[in-house]
Amino acid sequence: MIRSVVRGFGAALPKRVVTNRELEEMVETSDEWIVQRTGIRQRYVAGEDETTASLGAEAARKALDNAGLTIADIDVIICATSTPDNTFPATAVNIQNRLGMHHGFAFDLQAVCSGFVYAVSTADLHIRGGMARRVLVIGAETFSRILDWTDRTTCVLFGDGAGALILEATEGEGSNSDRGVLTSQLRSDGVHKEKLYVDGGPSTTGTVGHLRMEGREVFKHAVGMITDVIEAAFGATDTTAGDIDWLVPHQANRRIIDASAKKLGIPLEKVVVTVDLHGNTSAASIPLALSVAAADGRIKKGDLVMLEAMGGGFTWGAVLLRW
């Protein structure tokens, strides 16, 4: 059977680093409080010359270099983002142009923090359906543009960045020993919209709006939703937590990450954590974390890797793949 195998990876971050100490001068908060509640020590914030498309294009170029490919080898670009450069056209089309790609097709996918998991699943379907041989999957965000920088409960949590994977069609045996995507599990439930949303949009206020969040409510649902899709992935592949080499979670909050791993029985030494460096970069967080762990040699060819995320909507999902 056809499997969607990771061929390359890349990441991009803005130039400016904003530490917790700097935020102490902006809002009533403290480095100690932020670290204790979230695990975040710093985040990257885009400058005027940096956008979701520019960061996404940079991550894409690095993924192409890592794979030893050129843009001519790519059939489709999927960009997961909630902070597009424009209402339309899609940021993916903007990235396509920046990369000099004039063939194939490109589109955005919006599932907030679960966006990259949704995008990998969508790319896998395109590949297994025969519509594409290679798909460039990007998660890119500039959440700093939609933050209320006077709201200490949200502005300390988020950051900007981009990450990318190239998925390539490869023949597999149809067993769990195959490299590539083994299963995807996606969920959503719109009843939770008011718990994490942006209070603006073209069809409602005609403005971009700001991110609003009921933090305790999000935390309350997060661990259960995350374990739900991971256990579904285990069930679909007849695997267990003991088979996992690496858990690469959405980097939202260290306490959620630790609680989820504990509930699933996954040792913390098998969990990739970058929330301290990047903050919550929404759809960019998983590919950023993957790029860090693959670049430093932790994630190696043949490793069984679980990706998971939960975001506004609520949306949540998991992808199990062999690197």
Structure description:
Strands 1-7-6-4-5 form a five-stranded mixed β-sheet, with helices on both faces. Strands 8-13-12-11 form a four-stranded mixed β-sheet, with helices on both faces. A two-stranded antiparallel sheet has the order 2-3. Helices cover 31% and strands 26% of the residues. The chain has two domains: 2-171, Thiolase/Chalcone synthase (Peroxisomal Thiolase, Chain A, domain 1), CATH 3.40.47.10; 180-322, 3-Layer(aba) Sandwich (Peroxisomal Thiolase, Chain A, domain 1), CATH 3.40.47. The chain is built from nine helices and 13 strands. It has 323 residues and is an alpha/beta fold.
Structural class: alpha/beta
User: Which CATH class of the largest domain?
Assistant: Alpha Beta
The low-confidence runs, each spanning 5 or more residues with pLDDT under 50, are none
Radius of gyration: 18 Å
Order of helices and strands: EEHHEHEHEHEEEEEHEHHHEE
What is the count of helical runs? 9
